[in-house]
Write a structure and sequence with these properties.
With 430 residues, the chain is α+β, with helices and mostly antiparallel strands. The chain has one domain (28-358): PPM-type phosphatase domain (Phosphatase 2c, domain 1, 4-Layer Sandwich). It is 27% helix and 26% strand. It is globular, with a radius of gyration of 22 Å. The structure holds zinc ion. Zinc ion binds at residues 371, 373-374, 376, 404-405, 407-408.
């Protein structure tokens, strides 16, 4: 059989040899990833995920990537543990197969949105209370992609000394756009009332009293607490940089600048416990205090020296705080000359129709027949366009994809305050 012969020919170079060959050639152009982590626990609700040198076959060979996750749970740890165990798989299953390296990286922002929403939806079905922040970082070559809900943060210091905020701040106290969204989706935002009319503490949403506007879990609070992540993707120069990912226990005590300055020159393994120590010394151990430090280094440089030869000029990238999150997408590549970190993608909208609409390469058209969130197969004609019910004529047509299954469509409407969420309708009568 000719097909058998062809099959044997393909196997003459074993996969392990191919992998080794690819990894050798990768070494020249890929950074070295060194990380450290530390945690000073108070409630035991912070969890981390550290996966380095994961390999995948891509159209043009083999590629490696690393994943770092921080999950700060509240009202118990079930949501944090569940997310740690399932989120990565849910994100990867939303990436079409057979993409080359560049396509894979470009597909990540959309796959992250699908993976976050699927994880939240699946966790809801377990009918457990608790919720979690998520700061999820994928490093592929010099490209860093960060998806976040909640108030754990990821900051980047480039080798040139610029500081970049790669995660969102979904605290109601500081995020007006999110307050507006929650109110328009049927939630209330206000401070804790002590009874005598005095209001105390940070802004919270009611029912539930959560200070955050986005999370995974929190099924007892309301669908307006959405799991749709803010996603930012940047490409570092070949000088590399340092990522610091911490829970709010650190950021309530230290600014990004102070945290980064405090560990200059230290290797990542020493920097992480140092930042935790600094935070606890500054404010005491009031919360779980967790830190992951990731150094993205040129291969020829020793891992102990993040270069800081000159007094760094702080380049603060504030665009993530701009009010209109819907206007951004693939931003053109004109950036400040001093700004050597290239911004590839930024989007924070809570609307699925704005987040799942990124065009895939034409070769993946078959994906039309899978739910864009949970990846179940949908029969032609049964999928519901993500644009269904949109009032903008001409921009998109209701028969345009991507499509959702009936169950994910219900979730989408509930998140936008349009539908009646299953749990609210079947819940209490208050
Ligand atoms: Zn679905």
């Amino acid at each position: 059989m000719s097909s058998t012969t062809r099959g044997e020919q393909h196997q003459t170079v074993p996969l392990s040899v191919l992998l080794k060959r690819e990894l050798l050639s990768e070494k020249i152009e890929r950074p070295e990833i060194v990380h450290g982590q530390a945690c000073h626990s108070k409630k035991g609700e912070d969890f981390t995920l550290l996966k380095t040198d994961r390999q995948r076959l891509v159209g043009d060979g083999v590629s490696t990537y690393s994943v770092f996750g921080l999950f700060d749970g509240h009202n118990g740890s079930a949501a944090a543990v569940y997310t740690k165990e399932n989120l990565l798989d849910n994100v990867l299953s939303a990436i079409p197969p057979d993409l080359n390296r560049d396509e894979w990286v470009a597909a990540l922002p959309r796959a992250l949105v699908a993976g976050f929403v699927k994880t939240d939806k699946d966790f809801q079905q377990k009918a457990q209370k608790s919720g979690t922040t998520v700061t999820f970082v994928i490093v592929d070559g010099w490209v860093v992609t960060v998806a976040s809900v909640g108030d754990s943060r990821c900051v980047l210091e480039s080798s040139e000394g610029g500081i970049y905020y790669l995660s969102a701040d979904h605290r109601l106290e500081t995020n007006e756009e999110e307050r507006v969204r929650i109110r328009s989706s049927g939630g209330e935002v206000g401070r804790l009332n002590t009874g005598g009319g005095a209001e105390v503490g940070p802004l919270r949403c009611w029912p539930g009293g959560l200070c955050l506007s986005r999370s995974i879990g929190d099924m007892d609070i309301g669908e307006f607490i959405v799991p749709v992540p803010y996603v930012k993707q940047v490409k570092l120069s070949t000088g590399g940089g340092r990522l610091v990912i911490c829970s709010d226990g650190v950021w309530d005590a230290l600014s990004a600048e102070v945290a980064l300055d405090s560990c200059h020159g230290m290797p990542a393994e020493a920097a992480a416990p140092h930042i935790v120590k600094e935070a606890v010394q500054a404010k005491g151990l009031r919360d779980d205090t967790t830190c992951i430090v990731v150094d993205i280094l040129p291969q020829e440089k020793p891992p102990t020296s993040v270069p800081h030869t000159k007094k760094p000029v702080k380049v603060m990238l504030k665009s993530m705080f701009r009010k209109k999150s819907s206007e951004s997408s693939y931003i053109d590549k004109e950036y400040l000359e001093a700004d050597v970190v290239e911004e590839l993608f930024e989007e924070g909208s809570a609307m699925l129709s704005e987040r799942l609409d990124t065009k895939y390469p034409l070769c993946n058209m078959f994906k039309l027949f899978m739910c864009a969130v949970c990846q179940v197969e949908i029969k032609p004609g049964e999928g519901i366009s993500i644009h269904e019910g949109e009032p903008i004529p001409g921009k998109s047509r209701p028969w345009d994809g991507p499509f959702l299954c009936a169950s994910c469509q219900e979730k989408k409407e509930a998140m936008e305050g349009k539908g009646i969420s299953g749990r609210l309708s079947s819940g209490s009568d208050e």
